[in-house]
Amino acid sequence: MRSLRKYTTHGKGVKEPKTSLWVALATCAGAVAVAVVDLLPQMRGLPWYVLHVIPVVWIALWSAEDDVYPVTGLAIFASVLAMLPGYVTVDGTRPIPITDRVLVITVIWATVLIAVLRKRARRTFRWINLAGKR
Length: 134
Hints:
The protein has a two-stranded antiparallel sheet with strand order 1-2. The chain is mainly α. The protein has helices at 2-5, 21-39, 53-62, 69-83, 99-132, and strands at 9-10, 14-15. The longest helix is centred in the C-terminal third of the chain and has 34 residues, at 99-132.
């Protein structure tokens, strides 16, 4: 019965998400942890902002093949968190220039694009294999 439930739709043809809530919470917690480390004044000398990509990669790998929304949602969240040090000052330090953050935002969204294309290719491959087994 559980496998049948995976493919049912609710309401106006919207499929229910297949990605576990725990996966989404773990990756969001990872994004917040990277943002906290990035905001620490002691860590200003190191390029911690590059680590904002890691939670997006995690959700891309751990989410279900049919779910694009968790990857996109976490990418939006990680992008906002990556831009946060450009506007916030902690302990009187000056904000990080926004130009340093453009690179990490670009890498985050390139990761999302690659993940979505990968998920689509895997779905297509699975569909072609199922169609050939008739």
